[in-house]
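Hey,

The postdoc asked me to send both predictions to you directly instead of through the lab channel. I've kept everything plain text so nothing gets mangled by the mail client. Protein one:
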Amino acid sequence: ASPNPVSAATVAGGGGIGAVFVDGEKAERGQLNALVNALARVPAIVIARFRSASDPSLKPKLDEGLLGATLANASSLKETLRFLRKVYLPPLGRRSVGPSSVTRYLGAIKDFVGRNNVVFLGGVTIGDAAGVSKVESIVKARARGLRFLEVDSAGIARSLGVAEGALEHAAAVAKVENA
């Protein structure tokens, strides 16, 4: 279920929250735009998680006003770079600017294109052993717009088959945090 935009704005505004992470793939058309608009006065940004750069809804959902996107369970530099090319505008990426039923920026395209890559946050979530083992390679994408790493601590523990806080888990999380 998607968060209620008004409730999310109330929570974000009350606690000094700077970002709200949502499952971008499950959001229906227009829901992300409603959430972005509800959080506009807080200010907090909406960052959506996607499982693949191949998701056909990626561009339309970015057009709803998202200021960040993260690739869930990134496991390679190649996959990360492909995702970043899809979320950033030229010259950093290959995302196009085109019509969308919820796009507000078409009247100010020059301004949007000029500032979007500066403010947009492209990231990856490391949430399994494959991502942990490749994190040193994945962070090389910083030169192509990787701006943050999100650590899915519970996911890492599950993929390692150990309890959260176990020595192996703590070492894996520290490896990601220190990358």
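Protein two:
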Amino acid sequence: VQTCALPICFQRMLRDCEVTLCASPEILAVAGSPPSARLLFPIRDSIAPPATAPTIPLERTPAALFAGRFDHFLGAEMKALLRAARDTGRAHLVRIIGPDQHWDQETRELAGPFYGGMLKGADLQAALSSAAVLLVLAPFSAGCEHIAHSSFPCKITDYCPHSVPILVWGPESCSSVAWA
């Protein structure tokens, strides 16, 4: 695993946190082992199933689904994916759900055909359960290496109970890629 130096502002934030959860010993080391740090290994087999088994449709929606925000760190990656899907005639294979209030005009125009709205509750659960694959992205952009290396998207644990394959797309040094 590559090591990287965290920006000073990120180090300060970690030092000031009451609790810092790290997904691996490597991330803990990069974080500088703040006194509040605890290891929290995301072990796929340890995620408790829901009280009632989700109803999995016999026929899944033939689309990869990304649920969440992508306007900041993941903007370039998501835009590249959407352009590739659009330009190859495969727009029907990608869907996005989540907040769109921070999108710029370019993102609105590009993401429009892929956007399924801001879903909550039963609608969100149904969308997650019916996807062919659920997407987790990490930034490849220069300057975002510390984010990719030291963060672990909580959406992975949100996705696991749905019995749907999870596709993790990120650089090799990314903690979620290493976990996957």
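Summary for protein two, as requested: The beta strands are 20-22, 37-39, 61-67, 94-97, 131-137, 166-169.

Thanks,
C.
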